[in-house]
Amino acid sequence: MIFSPNVKSKKGANTKWHTTPFPTADKELIGIFTGLSVEVCENADIIELYTNGNYGKGTKSRSTPQIIRIESATHNLERYEETLALSLEEAFFLSYYLKVLTINNIQDERLEWFEMLQECETINRKFVCNLAAYIYLKSKCWIVKSGLKFGSNFCKKGPRFYHASFAVLISCNNEPCAHLVAKNIKGLQRIAETSDKDILLLDVTKPSDFQMRSLEDISRLAISESVIRRFNYAAFVQKKAQEK
Which of 89, 107, 124 is the last residue of a domain? Predict the structure, then answer.
């Protein structure tokens, strides 16, 4: 059976909104590494990153940064005291692969890629595997969002238009993972089903001698994907009845 993801439109979404999967700014954008994430402070930079790829999350908003709503309604770019928080994977990808973002530390000193990598691995020892999975999904032009509620959230046209299609689990070199215990997978399936999502498992395989000496070394990691889906007989019958 050919797999097809659940694509659920948001009510009132303007699907004619012009957006691109990657930022198109001519000037370099600035982010500050806080020790946990990278925050973008300038309004123009926030608008550029969020409207072209839906990168980051407003630090005082549930989803869309307030400055986006203000700009859309009034075209007024007056200062609004909210920053855009980028995940470590988002910031690394934007800065060192797309080269549209400069990451500085709190002393306003620029961080080179290997310095940022050390900081990220201190926070999360599986950062390289997560980064490889992130880049793999971005290569499909998907929107990749942090998934504290469901795992990780992915969709093709962004939170403005559709709800996320997947809750994603990342396994690195088949290391033991609490999420991959049968009982926990059942629980995650229940959570995913209530929000019309499927579970996507990404298995990242890293060579035993792997060391990231350059940005290109990330291509040495192999990624396989599989979808975990529980057959819902009641939903299947309802769908067939609606098709008649």
Answer: 124
